Amino acid sequence: MAISSPHCIRNSIVPRVALPRGLNYRCGNFKKTRLQVLACSSVADKGLSFDKRVETLLDSVKWDDKGLAVAIAQNVDTGAILMQGFANREALATSISSRKATFYSRSRKQLWIKGETSSNFINVHDIFLDCDRDSIIYLGKPDGPTCHTGAETCYYSSVSSIVENPQVKKDILAMTTLYSLESTISERKDEIVRKIESKPSWTKKLLLDEKLLCSKVREEADELCRTLENDEEKSRAASEMADVLYHSMVLLALKDVKMEDVLEVLRKRFSKSGIEEKNSR
Fold it and tell me: Which Pfam families match (predicted)?
């Protein structure tokens, strides 16, 4: 895990401390292993005993008059905003050392670890402070649904839907373009399974004809390559890549593979040489 901030003390290295295995820290473009912890983020493993440099970092956060700052949890693979809470100095330090998203409950006036009752922890991979140093992002991987309602995230009430169709109550998860497309493909697949009559759909046609689908994936991949070989415009390459993504996502839907699974694989390859990774297959 790394904690990132552009305002860290960059040139000081603190003594070795017993940190969780594999726990790394980053400060700007500087990165050290668990044996050399940067001044911006070192925390001893027991009793939240802070190194002086960690105190300096925590002092630099603009805590409000109650000693709190907004803390947002974000999915490291999908980018989805999972939830928002508050953190104090101890909660932030606990998140760094335990790698579990930890917040401060204003109602109970105590720390709480997301998942401590539901087991749906948010496993922290990185922590970011904003430019004003008054809000925090826990970038992590959730073990399950984040919202207490059982929803994937706490953000599923679309303002535009509420304003435009107040009589229709429908939960809509806040999703980026890629995941909105994945959701639509999933809906078409569900319509086929449930034999729901609807208007003709190219997605359904692909889902029902594996041979056609595979031929389209190959065709679109070839057309993408031709944009490079024929030195075509960037817009053309973007268009062909969109076709490759769409048809590949339909194929993934048939294999019950989510884009989040694909992105997780890519993330885990970041620290490994591409040549080494291929040789290990």
Answer: PRA-CH (PF01502), PRA-PH (PF01503)
